[in-house]
Amino acid sequence: MTEFQSKIRTIEWVDTFSRMVDQTKFPYEFSFVDIKTGQDMFDAIKTMIVRGAPAIGIAGAHGVVLYAQELEKENLSRDEFVSKLLEKADYIATSRPTAVNLMWAIEKQKEVIKNSTSDIKGLIEELKQNGIKLENEDIEINKKIGDYGAEVVPKGATILTHCNAGALATVGYGTALGVVRSAFAKDNTVQVFADETRPRQQGARITTLELTMDGIPTTLITDGMCSYFMKKGMIDMVCVGADRIAANGDTANKIGTYTVAIAAKYHNVPFYVAAPLSTIDTSIKSGDEIVIEERSREEVTHINGKSICAEGVNVINPGFDVTPHELIAGIITEVGILRPDYNKSIIEAFKNQ
Ligand code: MRU
Q1: For residue 353, what pLDDT is reported?
Q2: Global pTM?
Q3: What CA–CA distance (Å, rounded) separates 15 from 328?
């Protein structure tokens, strides 16, 4: 158990509601918010109070329980209850489009709804228990990812990461930062270079915070600096998270990841993706099919509520990009490190689940 991990769960079911770390307040405030309605959960995901692919998956699963609790009060027949709840589940899945873990976890809840033979009360309890099970499994999976990943971290390595794929993007421990945590536990000379990650600065606001809390040496750099440090031989590997991985290994992650991957290829720095199997979407052949979230212009034009550019300037703000599979040295999962040809290794991974 790391220092950070012993303190918090990023998201957790408490009795009748979902408690989560409010990630919009970093780095000024470390506070929790209790989400008590399905609509509030939809909004929490959309406004990124909770963010990071595995964390929003759990948020989606909790959202289904919240809607179930609300519908229970409407005195519906069981059939009406089920049909309305399935509609609400699909609604929550539309809160953010790119991270497939959201749809995956909601699908897990829909399976419970469809397979249950219990009355409404019993069904709500089953959904609650399933949400808690997904929470617990998330941490276990991340630890396995961390341990597999640590095997490919060279001694004394400097690992570059982009965005935040840490404890705060999951229930705990993290995917890419899980690899860092496991590597650091074996070799405390490992260190991290964290990309700031414009526009929302998850690297600066979140990654530096959680790594520093764990005493892992971390250097903050801005997004354009990675090639400079790679050329100087100061980066030994890149490890990032993922929001959706296609059947051929193409990987959507926070905007700017693709640029890092190109720089890594040019400088012969191995580029790894760390993600649970729930981030792999085998229903799509390539990254071309991944829907990229478009976010507001204010995220780009403003920092801390202050404009940083000419008023009225054109802005485009895609939240994610897709790194082609050719640039990825390995995908670190809970069943091992997948290597090219990903079309084959991904199918094998699901068989070994
Ligand atoms: O927009 P965000 O902050 O939800 O984006 C997060 C990322 O891109 C993470 O790298 C990804 O979700 C993996 S989290 C383990």
Answers
A1: 81
A2: 0.97
A3: 42
